[in-house]
Amino acid sequence: MTALEDSPQAQALVELGREFHARGWVPATSGNFSARIDAGRIAITVSGRHKGKLTTADIMLADLDGNSLSPGKQPSAETLLHTQLYRRYPAVGGVLHTHSRAATVLSLSAGGWLILQGYELLKIFEGIDTHETHIRIPIFANDQDMVRLSAKVDAWITEHGAIHAYLIAGHGLYTWAGDVRRAGLQVEALEFMLECELLRRRTGP
Predict the structure, then answer these.
(1) Residues 35 and 17: beta-carbon distance below 8 Å
(2) Cβ 10 vs Cβ 44: under 8 Å
(3) Which residues contact 196 (CB under 8 A, 6 or more apart)?
(4) What's the pTM?
(5) Checking CA distances to 203, which of 3, 62, 64, 125 falls within 20 to 30 Å?
(6) E strand segments, the chain
(7) Residue 187 near residue 137, CB atoms below 8 Å
């Protein structure tokens, strides 16, 4: 076992993969997870791996330009969406991408952004201490060109200010935090609120 495979970051990503798959948030080989190792490297899931069956051998190293640092292993296609956040925010320690039904449906029907308002679980986010608030989650059009898509996300944040998460249409949710555990809690809260939004839209106000 290599030092990376024995690292707490790799172990944490494996555990999240199994948990998120069991909850239906990363079907098949969808989703990708990463954790910061140091100022210039991240641990990230290898491309195409089933998240419910991850082992630490399915976690690899990449630099902040998205290049593989693990010979013979290819990082997730969306690695640049992770590294864009690590480069922008030195305090970010974990970036998680899920692909749930609620996130997928809402991302295709909500327009340019989704507003989450009045939920007690909004207090999971740093700087929010009351439910009497709202967060805006931008929705970006899906794009197989990750250089272009990551640049679009970066430009949106520069223009509109910091956000807690975003959606890619037909694709799913991205959120990030100071460490993987905290990012995992944000995923759990966001997926709950997205399910509530979907239910609310079915049943009316």
Answers:
(1) no
(2) no
(3) 119
(4) 0.94
(5) 125
(6) 32-38, 41-45, 59-63, 94-98, 113-117, 134-140, 165-168, 172-177
(7) no
